[in-house]
Each structure stands twice: as structure tokens, then as C-alpha cells.
Request: fold
Amino acid sequence: EGYTTILKVDGTTDIAIGDFLGTFTTAGIAMKAAAGDMCFAIALEAYTTNDSSGVIDALLITPRLI
Reply:
């Protein structure tokens, strides 16, 4: 739990500030979580580019179902 500045993300589904983040199909990359997904972080930056090359600030949280 805590603040990170190096969370790799995929922006195929646009990420906005405050979105919950969960696991992507590729290991080590997060994506925007949807209802019914497990999440482990909250985005503190937006990322909207359609690739898996994003690196954003995020708040790591205890994993939970949304």
C-alpha cells in the first residue's frame, strides 16, 4: 500500500484520475478495472494512448472487488 510513480499501464481503455486499476493480460501491466474486477490501485494521472507503454503515478491499495 502507498504511493508509486512507476506503475506501468495500458491505455486501450482510457484511464482517468481516480479510476480503479486492475491486472492486464500481460504480466506487470495494469489497466482500468471494470465492475466485477479485482483492483489494486487508484490512478493519480490520466493515460489515454492505445498502448501498454504508459507509466503513471498511482496509489496502491489493498486488493478488492469493485
About this structure: The first strand starts at residue 2 and ends at 9.
